[in-house]
Amino acid sequence: MKVALVYTSTTPELIELVEKEVGDVLPRETEVASYQDPSILAEVRDAGYVTAPPAARLVGMYMTAVSEGADAILNLCSSVGEVADAAQDIARYTGIPIVRVDEEMCREAVRQGKRIGVMATLPTTLNPTKNTILRVAREMNRQVELVDALVDGGFGLDQEQFKALMSEYAGTIADKVDVILFAQGSMAYCEEYIHEKYGKVVLSSPRFGAAALKDALVKKGLM
């Protein structure tokens, strides 16, 4: 069995977290292939939205993974999550599921509360994540309210500095929300810290993405 991890952000925190979570839920003998193109996210950040060229390169990575024998694909960037949505028809046709790292997290947020705080360091991640929460809320017949927390100045900080910054911004929304959702998987190491400080349900995507990847393989009869 082979799974493909498709990254457009290659921070060590994200890669380490994802590989740990995926390793925890899949059989030890599973082959894990990593596909990385950080220029995709860089272009999306510069443009402020997902333009055609980076979308095409991302779909190209999916197709490379399929042609190289992947049984399932995990898309690991929320900024380009809607590209994964757009690729679902080809995923069904090829029989190789393309799983979004954040979709099940968004569903869990809707289950946990009506008022959802969405934290991100990039506007290009904030908006697609909010779109996904609103879509899954509609599918679940729930009404939700979204509260933004755009964490300004988060890039280039070490982990302790970033935790402090996350705490500061979480403090601005904690009283207004039932649940706090991290839009970027690379934030996940702050999850327990923010939960303990503010007593709120805090959700980050790597563990949900790994579980969804496992579910996709189970549905195919591979596990």
TrEMBL record:
InterPro entries according to UniProt: Asp/Glu/hydantoin_racemase, Iso_Racemase_Enz_sf
Record-stated family: Belongs to the HyuE racemase family.
Protein name: Asp/Glu/hydantoin racemase
UniProt-listed Pfam families: Asp_Glu_race
GO MF, any single term: amino-acid racemase activity
Protein origin, superkingdom: Bacteria
